[in-house]
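Appendix B. One record, verbatim.
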Amino acid sequence: MDERAAGPRASVEAVFREERGRLLAALVHRFGDLDLAEDVASEAIEAALTHWPVDGVPARPGAWLLTTARRRAVDRLRRDQAYAARLAILAAEADRSGPAAPVDDDGGLPDERLRLFFTCAHPALPAADRGALILRYLAGLTTSQVARAFLVPTPTVAQRLVRAKKKISDARIPFRVPEPHELPARLPGVLQAVYSIFTEGYAASAGPQLQRLDLAEEAIRLARLLRRLLPDEREVAGLLGLLLLVHARRDARVGPAGELVLLRDQDRDRWDRAMIDEGRDLVLAALGGPPGPYGVQAAIAALHDEAADEESTDWAQVVALYDVLLALTPSPVVALNRAAAVAMRDGPAAGLALLDELAGEPRLRAHHPYPAARADLLHRLHRLDEAATAYRRALDLAGTEPERAHLRRRLAEVEAAGD
């Protein structure tokens, strides 16, 4: 590609990253078919790559893409009468359920994309399929990124996507706004999806950069909308608080050259104190009753943010909160994080013993933080050969270059100490 084409292509890609969710949501609401929406959205992007280098980037690029995609969809439907008839049925069903409307004083959903998040969280779909559908088509993650979010193989996610779309089609699940009484039942799936978007933004699954701030900020925006929509839901407050408390460290997590900076080495003066204060207030709201998983995670994040340094962190309280979280949501990832906290409270040998108990967990085998955590504790215990082996394993699994560079430095340190 020559330099003249590179600028417009970058502009198209930037616009698409920002507008993709809104574009798909609008198209699905209009035509009632996810596959059609994705196809014509892709065609609109290709059209932009053809026209924008010649005509310039339009003043409202999102509107340009939506208009182009709608025209492509209408052209396709005119050519395929059977397809059009089937979609007409779906559209009629959606219309009977009520049109999508902007936010109003009656508590309507304030964002078309968020409406579609709730739609794809329909209880007729299995939980894993709902999550994959939301992250792939509404959050814009790739299939491999969705697989990373769920700690499963990429082909498994691909199968889930096919199954979910088939279920929507066969069961004629309408793309509509849920009734107010339906929202709480669908909320856990939406919270998980927003959290997974943030996780990909906080630590990208692959690429040259550690963070994808656009995704992290989009997740925070969606969490704020949920907070406006459901102000009495404590787990919504917990999720927003968690995201703010973690995102407050974003500037300190990378060095001048984009390198990874661990929590213990971060310049805490660079943390966003206003964001931390807001997050702490939300923790209080989230824990105003029986604890939920997001509220507990937010409380853990608050303990880290309140500490002057790693040594003064209240590790006993962190471990106690992980005990609560493990009871609420038993998972190997929570157990991994708890083991790391135990290592800080009781020493590396205690943490390593807990990590070794997790060695048979299949979900951790492709999760590079597990061997990286083992390597760190083995290093601290001066078991250098074992530490080097664990660092090599983590290096094989790490997806981003900053993570890989960090692991290479640690491996070199261990190898030099062993010589």
